[in-house]
């Protein structure tokens, strides 16, 4: 069975002395909430995918973000009984007030502090990822 690979960025902003994570709500399926991410296209690296998907789904380019290439987290899980591997890198929005520009793949977005982001994500592995990235983000602000 072939592995589906995806990549994205977990974006945070620091505003009013609070770290908030960006979650996007899909406009398809179960309308779940995730950071910007997407499938790796043939011949594309995980890194290029993460940048492309973030631009497509949230409207943020590499210039809008401070991306921590040395801080990543990989999730492995199954979707429709097929293995999926998603790598995320941590990124800080340089201008906390900068608006999100959603694609048609998403119908809503929220900036949330850790606990609320974990609750909204709904998945245990994403909760652990967010906790890990929050711990690292605290040292970066």
UniProtKB/TrEMBL annotation:
Coiled coil: none annotated. CDD domains: NUDIX_Ap4A_Nudt2. GO terms for biological process: AMP biosynthetic process; ATP biosynthetic process. Pfam families: NUDIX. Residues 2-134 form the Nudix hydrolase domain. SUPFAM superfamilies: Nudix. GO terms for molecular function: bis(5'-nucleosyl)-tetraphosphatase (asymmetrical) activity; nucleotide binding. Keywords: Hydrolase, Nucleotide-binding. InterPro entries: NUDIX_hydrolase-like_dom_sf (IPR015797), NUDIX_hydrolase_CS (IPR020084), NUDIX_hydrolase_dom (IPR000086), Nudix_hydrolase_domain (IPR051325), Tetra_PHTase (IPR003565). Belongs to the Nudix hydrolase family. PANTHER family: BIS(5'-NUCLEOSYL)-TETRAPHOSPHATASE [ASYMMETRICAL], DIADENOSINE 5,5-P1,P4-TETRAPHOSPHATE PYROPHOSPHOHYDROLASE MUTT. This is Bis(5'-nucleosyl)-tetraphosphatase [asymmetrical]. The gene is LOC106114116.
């Amino acid at each position: 069975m072939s592995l589906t690979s995806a990549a994205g960025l977990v974006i945070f902003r620091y505003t009013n002395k609070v770290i908030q994570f960006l979650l996007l709500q899909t406009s398809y399926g179960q309308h779940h909430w995730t950071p910007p991410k997407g499938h790796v296209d043939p011949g594309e690296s995980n890194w290029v995918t993460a940048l492309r998907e973030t631009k497509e789904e949230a409207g943020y380019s590499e210039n809008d973000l401070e991306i921590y290439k040395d801080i990543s987290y990989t999730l492995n899980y199954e979707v429709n009984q097929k293995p999926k591997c998603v790598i995320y890198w941590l990124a800080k929005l340089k201008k906390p007030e900068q608006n999100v520009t959603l694609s048609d793949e998403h119908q809503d977005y929220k900036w949330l502090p850790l606990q609320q982001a974990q609750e909204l994500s709904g998945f245990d592995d994403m909760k652990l990822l967010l906790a890990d990235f929050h711990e690292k983000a605290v040292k970066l602000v």
